[in-house]
User: Fold this.
Amino acid sequence: MERSVSDISFFFHGTDFKCSKLNDGGRGIRRLVCLSERVEDLIAEFDRRILLGANDESEADSMDSTDPLQNARYRSYKMLVKWCPHVRELLQSGIETTELAYSLSKLNSSADSARGDDATRLKRAVADWLMECTPCPDPPIKLHDKQGRGLNNDATGRLICPVDYDWDDSNIRQAIRDYHPDYIITVSSWPMFMYASGSYDYENPRTGLFQGELLLKAFKYIFTSPTSAELDPKNQHDGVSAQHHSRLKRTTGERRTRCHLRFALSSIGSWRITEDAFNYQEFYDSIVDFFELAVTPDARKAIDDLLLWWNIRVFGPRNALIYRPQRVAQLSVARTFMR
Assistant:
């Protein structure tokens, strides 16, 4: 599988691979693999490890870099070949460089197009959800015009305000809007919409984190259906298969949703990585690191409990055994046969 970056791509003429596979695979990349990186950059990181002496993918897995960006790209590469299996097939096919290059551009284009579609749909949905709140936002939040969102509106400003600042303090609120250097919005603080009921505990910063109500609705709107976003999780049972549910919740999809919700609440009209001092890619990376780099048993258990919370609320409690199987070896039937 060793090849140069220029040899990487997805679609080639005169084979059984269809353009629809390319488009379908590309549309899933921004949801399940990475927020903005190019596919060739992800595969280039795998190639780099092969050139350093790895004989196969399993050896490449163990070659951690001192550069966090390289490690992040390799993790994304692993997600890429998992959720887009045609990538591995094409890399092993020996297709021509020009055909690969053409396919690569199509794949990246399809990925970005899907991200734009999700952002547009969520922009409208967020406006509807906030306008249903009591009291109603003033000024009203329009479906298609984002100029009245972000810090310009008290409703959206409160949601994207860093939890380290007190939005209810009029002086601090004005300082945030005036871009005072002591109150700049960056990725160093979690936005308020990430917390359940918008409540942040300074002494216990993990309490309620990634459990915001609007965040849950946004994920269900994109990944299950717009209708499911309005359902009470306790009354939600079978939509798609439980097995499919489990697979979705172990991807970066829910993490990417947080970036899109942050964008939908902002006042910028079109997608871009930076918004003033706030960097969406760094925001995404912080979320991924939180879930994937937990090293202590307590931290790992906290992540597992959080994923269970998400699965139950998105997919209902009836399929809990799918996303948290019982430890059957410790239960009575298994213990009986051990005697």
In short: Confidence is low (pLDDT under 50) at residues 1-18, 238-251. The radius of gyration is 22 Å. DSSP finds 15 helices and two strands in the chain.
